[in-house]
Amino acid sequence: MGQNMTLEKENQFDKYRIGKGKRLFDIIFSALALIIFSPIILLVAFVIKITSKGPIFYKSLRVGTGFDIFTFYKFRTMYKGADAERSKLSELNEYLISHKIKNHSFTNVENCPDCKQGEPCSPILFIDGIEICENMYLRKKRLRLLESTFFKVKDDPRITPVGKFLRSTHLDEFPQFINVLKGDMSIVGNRPIPLYEAEKLTTDEWSYRFLAPAGITGLWQVDHSKALKAENRIRLDNKYAMISSPMQDLIIILKTIPSLFKIGNSNS
Known about the structure:
about 270 residues; mainly alpha; three-stranded antiparallel sheet; about 45% helix; globular; disordered N terminus
């Protein structure tokens, strides 16, 4: 079983690496975007330079297809040294807040879907004074870990005034077309994530997202669900890895265009 899954994943990696049609589309689309929007790109670079100290571009190591690591580019939207301040804002992480509201504690456990009446699906454990089957206990632990993996803060104080505008208009994303031209990313795929996030998504259930190419936009970006749940994000990433096709990519691109005109925070 494990060997079959490994072979299946290897075949999927080959599929994405030899997708000449997708690669050609990425090159043409990115080159045209950089040429057409070059005046705006130069203006944004100039404004960033004169309004706050620090580099024009934000660079970070991200994890893409098959856990490949590459240097990811965005326009800098935060004050210099913002990454070092991240740990101080952990209590404001919206994914954790969503998790607490949902209450995944072991004192509020729903019935295990795999347990039959009077017949537990796995050994019974006693946690926080209640009985819980081992399968449900492990599921709760995975959810706790997953909700603490992603990081997003509303009204992040590290963001510059110019950065707020760039994020709300998605102009900070333009340098990623350079990543696409380099072959690090695709126009459509799963968002490349920082190393500290990727190192927590190593189980088969979560790592399937890394079968797909890293992308500027994807299913998660065009999902209109209001629920901010890490579990939903991984589900959509895994779904794209399984159903991706030229037609699916076109649909995602068409759905992405209207979102560019909506004011809102960047998703990464």
